[in-house]
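Example record

One chain of 151 residues, shown exactly as stored in the release files.
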Amino acid sequence: MTPSSSSALRIHVHGAEGAPASADRLRAAVLHVLRAESIEEGEFSFTLLGDRDMTDLNRSYLRCEGPTDVIAFSLGGDEGLLGDVYLGRERVRIQAEEHGVSAEEELLRLAIHGTLHLVGWDHPEGPERTESPMFQRQEELLAGLLRGEHR
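Predicted structure tokens for this chain:
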């Protein structure tokens, strides 16, 4: 695992072995969001976990039961943003099937979602969350990434 750097941006990816998108593809998604949001400095860690570990994090930090797809922790930082994002490996495959998209697309969507949380975006809970400005921004960024606009 080698961190990616773009000027003062460092992105670490853990647990991507056998994932539907490579560590490099995940880094590209994160960089796409950070550039679009004019973030020039920071260090970010993305870790793919199984349902058991996601359930433990969800219970411990969000006081919710069961596995979840993404949990983001913004850790502040004096020299740019600092944050950790955990992505639910099994949730990716389940949600991809439910939404009729590839597992790679769903994983990239969740990486974008977590990154948006780190840079300050948020959404309401409940059914209206998918109509929120954050979800609209997420889908806009994902579409651009899939069209190759991040290069």
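Notes: The longest strand covers residues 41-49.
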